[in-house]
Amino acid sequence: MEQPIFTTRAHVFQIDPTTKKNWVPASKQAVTVSYFYDSTRNSYRIISVDGSKVGVIINSTITPNMTFTKTSQKFGQWADSRANTVFGLGFASEQQLAKFAEKFQEVKEAAKLARDKSQEKMETSSNNSQESGRETPSSTQASSINGTDDEKISHGGPETAVLMSENDKLKTTVEQSNTNAKKLETELQTLRDSNARLVDALTESSANVEMWKKQLSTCKEESDTLREKIAELESQCEKANVEKERNSKLTVRVQELEMELQDKEQELENLRKQAEIIPQLMAECESITEKLQAAEVKNKDLEDRIEGLQADIEDSQSKQGNVKGELKKFMDVLDGKIDELHEFRQGLSKLGVDN
């Protein structure tokens, strides 16, 4: 008769059973995490099933003693003494984490109310049995006036035996519940100590992350290449609260960045040494600029001369065109004279033949 009352998606982690410090991912990707309510038992559970593995990742019954702790902006955890582990959930946003934590508190309060009601019922039944037990001696005293002990048992036997058996059962139940409560308190204290150690480790890790962020932010001002690597490191540092098992990889990465920083500092030192040559280069540049200006002046003079020569060439070309026109006229006149002489010669030759 269990029904889901709240569902979300998150990355599921479990505490490493050996070290009790590192988180072990229980799913390769974000999976569905749901709150279920069992109306027959009046209990609440958190259940998550990985579809790729077809297996249950989380099966945690919520008790009033449980506490959901937010360890970062997108990560939260709670301890389950029955499962003997600590569950961690990494969410995609702060809003999802806030909704899950709020629902956890509501379910915890509901579980507490259900426990209180059950205890009230047990106390009521215990009081009823005690009142019945108080009435029994009076009846036995009344019967003892006229009979022996065997007669007492024969007269009030069935009711007294039932009440005594119920009373013994209730005493056994109360003693067992007290024993279980002590065990749960011990386990809860152990889990609180473990949680405190985890919080200290996370705080120390967060402090280390902040220190690396400051160092990397100073390196951003020196190199554009290092900015990209620092941004990558910062993104890895932000995920460090979710995936603490990658701390070793981050440490190696930071060492590599320190080596690269040393190389960049060496390059900057070389650039500073090269920068000392810049004044000499500026002086040479100024002298070259002066030469260029002188060359531009000479070039301008040559351009003026070229313009004059082009004007002279144009004048000579125009004069040459005039001469060609006059020469053509002269050639036309000469051709006419030659034609006349040729005709005159033919005439003379005819006259010679006639004579």
UniProtKB/TrEMBL annotation:
Residues 1-111 form the WH1 domain. Residues 124-147 have a biased composition (Polar residues). Residues 112-123 have a biased composition (Basic and acidic residues). Residues 112-158 are annotated as: Disordered. Residues 167-319 form a coiled coil. Gene3D superfamilies: 1.20.5.1700, Pleckstrin-homology domain (PH domain)/Phosphotyrosine-binding domain (PTB). It is found in: Cytoplasm; Postsynaptic density. Keywords: Coiled coil, Cytoplasm, Synapse. It comes from the Eukaryota. Its main location: cytoplasm. It holds the Pfam family WH1. Belongs to the Homer family. This is Homer protein homolog 2 isoform X2. The gene is LOC106561749.
